[in-house]
Amino acid sequence: MIVFFLLNALVFLVSYRLAKRFSPAENKTYRFLTLTVIFYSQIVVILLFWGIQGKLYLENLVLSALIIFCISFFALKLKKSNTGYFILPEEIMRNKTVIFCFSLLVGFALVKIAINLANPPFGWDCLNYHFTFPVEWMKHKNLQNPITINDDLGPSYYPINGSLIYLWLAYPLQNVFMADLGQVPFFVIGFIALYGICRSLGISREYSLYASCLFSITPNYFKQMEIAYVDVMACAWFLACAYFLLNFYYQNKPRDAVFFSFSLGLLIGTKTTALPYAALLFVIFTFLLFKLYCFRKPRSFILYLALSVLLITAIGGYGYIRNFIQCGNPFYPLQVQFLGHTFFKGVYYGKSVYTAHIAPGTYALGKILFHEGMGAGLIIFVIPGIILCLINIARRSLSIEKIFTSLIPVALYLIWRYVIPLPNLRYLYPGLALAYAVPFIVLSKNGHYKIAVRILVILCFLASAAEISNRLELISSLFLSAALFFSGQNILSFLSRLRVSTWLIIITFSAFGLYFLNIDYNKNEYKRYASMVKYSGFWPDATAAWRWLNENTTGNNIAYVGRPVPFPLYGTNFKNNVFYVSVNKTDPAMVHYFPDGNYSWGADFMELHKNLEQAGNYREHPDYNVWLANLKRRNTDYLFVYSLHQTKEIAFSIEDTWSKNNPDKFRLAFNNSTIHIYKMK
Asked: Please, which residues have CB within 8 angstroms of residue 59's CB and are 6 or more apart in sequence?
C-alpha cells in the first residue's frame, strides 16, 4: 500500500507542477484537465518504456517516477499562486437545484464505490482481458498479450492504454482492490470536461452544470462505475480533446494543440472503436492549423502538425505499431477493405463478423430511448434540443462554433450506426455527452424558462436514479444523497478552509483505512464472488469452482479452456500461472499465426466453436498427443474446463473428452454442471 501511494503521489506532484506552469491560473477547468492529461500520460509512457524493454519491474516504475519528479522539481520554477482546483463550490452553494443534482450524483456514486471496494470484479471484459493482461505483464515483465480463447479473439490485439492504467493500480497491491475503481476518476474528468465545453460555448454556469449532471446520471453510463471497462475512459478523453480543441479555436495557443494531442493519443490508445471519433476531431484540428498557419507561416503548420502526430503516436500508437510489426496490419484482426480493394489483410472480414449475431431491432430508436438505460434526459432535453438547434442553423441564428457543436453529436451517431461494427450503446457515450450541451445552447438564448428547466432536470434525475440501483442500494443511496443535500454546503465550506497539514492528516487516515480494507479484500475475495452473481448474471457454478481452485492451489500452473474467463483462476495475490494450451503444434496459438482463419459468428453458439476447429483457424487439426506434450512442457498441474456456454447447450470442448478418456493422466478433482477441474497425475 505504501508503494501504491508513493507511486501515485510522485506522478501527481509532477502533474500538479506542470499543470500549474502551463495552464492559465484563472481557468480552473483548464488546469484540472491539464493535470489529469499529464498524470495519465506519465503512467502510460513509464509503463510502455519498461514494458517494451521487457523490464517491467515495480522498482523500475518507482525509480522512473522519482527521476521525473526530481527533474520537474529542479527544472520548473513556479510562481506562488493561490488559485486551486476547486471548480464547483461557488455555484453549488447558491443554487438548490444544482445542490440537489450534485448531492444525488455523489450519493449514488459513493454507494457504488463502497460496493466495489468490498467485492471482487464481475464485468465480462475485465475477467476476460482488462485484468488478465496486466497480470500476465506483471508475471512476464513485458507487454505481450496472451490469446483470448473461444469467444472474441480480438482483445489480444486491442490498444492497451486502459489495461495499462489497471496495471498501474494493481501492481503495487498484487490485487485489483483499487484497480476495480479504475474508471471512477474518469467520471470526474468527463463531468468537468463537459462542463468546460459548455462554458466555452457561452452557456451559463448553472446550465453547464445541468448538462454535466444529466449526462453523468445516464443509467447506461453511470452503471459502468461498477465494472472495470474502458468506455468511460474513452469518453473522458474524447471530451478532453473537444475541450482543448475549442480552446485552440478561440485562443490559438500552442499549449492547446499540445494538450489536444496528448488527449487524442490517450483516446486512440484506449479503444479501437474510438478511432473514427478521433479522426473527426483530428480533421477539425488540422483544418484549424491550416487556417491559422498554412498561408502565413507554412513551416509552423508543418511543425505543429508533425509534433501533434508524434505526440499522438507516442501516447496512443503502441497497439497499432505492434499489430503492424507482428501482423502487417495496424487494425488486426479486422481486414480493411475499401471499394473492393484489400489494404490490410485480417481474419475478421469487416462488419459482417460482428453483425452476424446482432438481434433484429438493435438500432431501433424505440429500443435506444426506452429499453437501454439512456435516461429520461435524452427524450426531454437532447432530442428536442438537437431539433431546435437544427432549425436555428437553417435560420442562420447560431455562431459557427455552436453549429459545429450541434452537428458533431449527429455525426457521431452516424459513425456509431454505420462505421463502428458493434452497436453497443457504450460506444455512443461521446456523442451523447456532447449532445447534452445542445439543448442548453438553445435554452441559454431564452432566460424565461428557468423554473421549468429546473423542474424538468429534477424529474430526469429522479427517473434515472430509479434505474441505476437495486432496492437496497437505492434506499441507502437516497439516504446518503439527502444527507449531502442538507449538509453539503457546510461540508464544502469546511473543506475549502482546510490547511495543507490538515489535508495530509485526512489523507493519512484514509490510507490506513484502505490498508485494512485491502487486507479484508485479500481474505474474503473468493468468498464474495458468489454474492456477485446477482450483480453480474454470472453463473453460480463458476464462482464455486473459482473458490475451490483458490483454496486448493499454492502457486500452481493452470491450463484453461472453454469460456474466456481466466482472471479468477489466478487466485489470491495472483499466486497461480494461467494459460491456454494449444491442441496443435502451434503453441502459443496466437491468431496471427493462422492467416487463413475465417471467423464467422452467428446466433448458433456451438457453430462458432466448430468454426474455430476448421482448417486455417487456431484450433485446427486437434491432436491429443500434441496437446498432452504442450501441457507437459508448461508443467501443468490443473486443467480448468469451462463449458462452452453457461446457460444453454451445455457442452464441453474436445479437451474435456480427452481428459475423461485418459484417467491415467487426468484425475477429476472438481465437478459440477458447467465446470470440470482435472488434476494432472
From this structure: none
For residue 493, count other CB atoms closer than 10 A to its CB.
Answer: 11
The pLDDT of residue 356 is: 47
Residue 517 forms part of a structural domain: no
Which residue range(s) make up the domain with 656? 534-680
Cα 445 to Cα 381: distance, rounded to the nearest angstrom: 15
Rounded-to-integer distance, Cα 400 and Cα 110, Å: 40
Residue 123 lies in a domain: no
List alpha helices for 23-131, DSSP H: 28-53, 58-75, 89-94, 96-118, 124-125
Looking at the chain, the number of H-run helices and the number of E-run strands are: 31, 7
Contact 225, 184 (CB under 8 A): yes
State residue 530's pLDDT score: 82
What domain count does the chain have? Answer: 2
User: Is the pTM value of this prediction over 0.85?
Assistant: yes
Query: How far apart (Å, rounded) are the C-alpha atoms in residues 630 and 658?
Result: 14
Average pLDDT score, the chain: 87
Nearest-angstrom CA–CA distance, 641 and 632: 17
Domain boundary (63, 86, 109) is at 86
pLDDT tens-digit map of 666-676: 999 999 989 99
Is there a domain that residue 11 lies in? yes
Kindly state the cell numbers that stand for 540.
453460480
pLDDT digits (tens, 9 = 90+) for 458-488: 999 999 888 888 778 888 899 999 998 888 7
Mean pLDDT of 639-668: 89
For the cut 60, the answer to whether the pLDDT of residue 367 exceeds it is: yes
Residue 335 C-alpha cell reads as 481486414
Nearest to 643 by CA among 603, 674, 598, 680: 674
In a domain, 575, yes or no: yes
Q: At residue 111, does pLDDT exceed 80?
A: yes
- Cα–Cα distances in angstroms (integers) from residue 146 to residues 324, 378, 457, in the given order: 17, 40, 47
